[in-house]
C-alpha cells in the first residue's frame, strides 16, 4: 500500500480487512499510525514463522531472537503466542526433541537438564520430556562399547571412561554400576 508522499507500507490481508481498506480511501493520521503498528506486528509474525521453519526453537528462544532483530517485547510475545496458538510452536515437543537428540548422542540426565534450561524450556515440562530418555545404564553401555570396542578395562582406562561419563551428565551411581556390568561382561567373553 502506498501512502501520500509515496511511502510504501507493507500490509497483510488481515490489516486490509480489519481497517476496511480500498483503493482511494482517505485515511486519517491516527489510522495511519495504527495501520503502521499493525503492519509491523504482522511483519514480526512473518519473521517469527520464518525463524521457526528454519529450525525448532522454544518459545523463549524465539522471543529472544525476535528481540535481537529489533522487535519490541510486546510484539515478540504476541508473535510467539500467535504461533503457539496455531500449533506451530510447542515447547513440550521441542523439549522431547532435545532430550532424544542428546540421549542418542550419549549424554545423561544432568546434561539433558542443562540443555533444557539453556534453551528456555519451562521447568514444568522437563519431567515429561525426560520420561522419554532411555535408561542411563543403557546409554552408558552404548558409550562404553563405542569407546572401548570390546577391550577389557584397565585402571587408567576405567578412570578416563568414568570421568568422561560424569562430564556427560551421568550420576556416579549409574557410572559405577554400568562399568561393573561392562567389566563382568568382558570377563565372560574372555573365557
Radius of gyration from the alpha-carbon trace, in angstroms = 26 Å
**Do you know the CATH topology of the largest domain?**
Arc Repressor Mutant, subunit A
The computed structural class is mainly alpha
Number of DSSP helices?
Answer: 10
Strand count, sense and barrel status of the largest sheet are: none
**CATH top-level class of the largest domain:** Mainly Alpha
Q: Which CATH-level-2 architecture of the largest domain?
A: Orthogonal Bundle
User: Helix amount, in percent?
Assistant: 55-70%
Explain what you see:
- This protein has helices at residues 13-18, 29-54, 59-68, 73-86, 91-104, 109-118, 126-130, 136-148, 155-167, 172-190.
- The chain folds into 3 domains: 13-88, Orthogonal Bundle (Arc Repressor Mutant, subunit A); 90-134, Arc Repressor Mutant, subunit A, CATH 1.10.10; 135-191, no CATH class.
- It has 191 residues and is an all-alpha fold.
What labels would you give this structure?
191 residues, mainly alpha, Arc Repressor Mutant, subunit A, 10 helices, 68% helix, 0% strand
